[in-house]
Amino acid sequence: MQDKVFIDTNIFVYLYSSDEKDKKEKCLSAIGNYDCYTSTQAINELINVLIKKFNVKPNIIKEVIDEIYSSCIVNNVDKEIINKALDIHFTYGFSYYDSLMLSSALNSQCTQILTEDMNNNQLIDNVLKITNIFID
């Protein structure tokens, strides 16, 4: 059984961007080695970037959404996740939205969150390791 990892928005952005080919390859490689989880928050943030930064058309965005749903288990952000995000925010000092990602990852019982942000190698609640896949 592969480790469960949570995919942060920025990893998806690199997967669907043609600007950063090296980062895209690292993301593809990393995702292929894990059971992947994400949240509706990450998908919505990705959609926002695809529209605003890359001017992607709706039909392409819908295909991206289909790909994510077929390759990841996607959690809805609910009251439990929101409450835990508040605890994480006030305990660890992350922004609320990063705390929401971390809470979603914990809710999914992931052992890692793959991201470019946050504090590489920091352990959240003695369970979830923040992993910046771009640091060698």
Output the keywords.
single chain, 136 residues, alpha/beta, 6-stranded mixed sheet, 6 helices, 6 strands
Give your account of this protein's structure:
The protein is of the alpha/beta class and 136 residues long. The chain has six helices and six strands. The chain has a six-stranded mixed sheet. Strand 5 and strand 6 form a beta hairpin.
Percent of residues in beta strands: 15-25%
- The arrangement of helices and strands along the chain is EHHEHHEHHEEE
- The shape, in one word, is globular
Largest sheet: 6 strands, mixed
Number of strands: 6
Provide the spatial order of strands within the biggest beta sheet.
3-2-1-4-6-5
Helical region count? 6
Helix content: 40-55%
- The secondary-structure class comes to alpha/beta
Gyration radius, in Å: 14 Å
Distance between the termini: 25 Å
Give the integer mean of the pLDDT values: 94
Oligomer: single chain
List segments where confidence is low: pLDDT < 50 over at least 5 consecutive residues. none
